[in-house]
Structures are given as structure tokens and as C-alpha cells.
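User: Predict the full complex structure for these chains.
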Amino acid sequence: DQQVKQNSPSLSVQEGRISILNCDYTNSMFDYFLWYKKYPAEGPTFLISISSIKDKNEDGRFTVFLNKSAKHLSLHIVPSQPGDSAVYFCAASARNDYKLSFGAGTTVTVRA
Amino acid sequence: DVKVTQSSRYLVKRTGEKVFLECVQDMDHENMFWYRQDPGLGLRLIYFSYDVKMKEKGDIPEGYSVSREKKERFSLILESASTNQTSMYLCASISGGLRNTEAFFGQGTRLTVV
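Assistant: Here is the predicted structure of the two-chain assembly.
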């Protein structure tokens, strides 16, 4: 029973345009959300996070939006660059817990 | 920089072999995790540990065991490797001090069981 869902397996976007990745969750105990980026044959690297007390967090080209009532978060990448081509995982953790639950991932391809 | 190091990048093992995957972190983190990554399934939690000698089952522990004899080292053991355990294995650690902090991952071990 996957508690974190990324329903789009892939996304193709032109260089310079916006990439929008979506993530839904079912566990109402989740209060911390993260995005990770992963290249083939490497471990995931942390990108950006958001606590449930906020609805937006921004770091350079990356912005995460959280809609708690809809149990939905999204990652915006503006502008998209060729180096952004990777698999992006959404993750969440619950109150009083450290372990992360991950979505299935979205493969982003940035076209020149 | 936090460093999480997995002992092997690539491994090929035969069905029925006992396999050890080693993970070491250098930042004195209390919490360590083993995940496997499979296409379309994302990262699934196998086992985790919040302290030395402590271990807890994750979502898919069957066919695996773990060992945490020292704080910095967390080992994943495949008691009798099977072809359905062919996967990318990822070790992670998180500081036990603050909640709401990110996990740091190792580079991964691509295990093939033939």
C-alpha cells in the first residue's frame, strides 16, 4: 500500500521552460516532505523540503508547494536545464518518525 | 560533508549464496536505513535501525536480515540470494538530533543474482 504516489512516470520539457512534478499522499500523519533527484547508477541526492506548517518553500530554481487539504505537493523547476534530466522522488515522513516513504519516481527529460 | 559509503557499486552473485552489503557513515548519525529501488516501484524500505544493536523491519523485510554492531556501520544480509532480489540497494542515514532533516544516501549497490 503505497502512501506516497507519483502518478506521472515521465515528463519531457523543453530547456528554459517550467517543469512541474506532482505528488500525492494518503497518510495524514505525514508532516515533512522532501524531493530527491537521482541519476542512473548513483544514490539519490536531496533537493528541497517543506514542513507541514508551510505551504511554499523556494531554493533557487526549485520551489515546492504543499496543499495539505488536498494531500498534494508539487515541485516546480524554473527554468529547466539539461542537467535537470534525472529521476525525481517525492518522500514523506510522519510525526515522531525518521523513516521516509517514497513515491515511484518521475523521470524528467529536458530537451535542448 | 556527510558521507555514506557502500562497499560495492556492482555485485553479481549466484542463487542460494549468502550476500553481505556493507554501509558506513561518517557523521555519527543514529538512524540508518536500507532501501531497494526497482523500476516503477520507487524506493522501498527493507530494514532500519535507530541505534546500535537495534533493528526494525520495514515494508519488505522477507529474505533479508541486518546487523548494526557499531553506530557507523549497518549491514544488509541476504540469507540465500534469489533472482527476485536483483535490484539497486541504497543505504541512508539521518541525524537523530533534529526532526525534519534530510536523509543522506550512499552511491548504491547494483546487485544481480544469477
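DSSP finds no helices and eleven strands in chain A.
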